[in-house]
Hints:
- The chain is of the alpha/beta class.
- It has one domain (3-102): Hypothetical Protein Aq_1857, Chain: A, CATH 2.60.300.
- It has two helices and seven strands.
- The strands form two sheets. A four-stranded mixed beta sheet has the order 3-2-5-4.
- It starts with a strand and ends with a strand.
- The mean pLDDT is 90.
Amino acid sequence: MRVTATAAALEAIARLQAARGPVAFFQSGGCCDGSSPICVEDGEIPPAAHDLLLGHVGGAPFYIDADQYERWRRPDFVVDLSPGPAEGFSLGLADQHFVTKDKR
């Protein structure tokens, strides 16, 4: 699988979905939230033709720009949590935000 999530991230996704409905992730490439994944309500940002669906985490689709995925040498992402609120417009919990790591 090209994207998985830690147990803590899966729990956070479930809590967000219980509060806000379905969510989706878009891996940022360096603007807005740095290189953290951006979590939005599903449908808020429609995937573009160049967005690649890497898989689902906690039932949420996880997209990345196809060119970016190639430039980063096709990483296998693990979605996790980091302390502190999300920057920019990404959904998160009051005291945690989503991050990605390459599991290779």
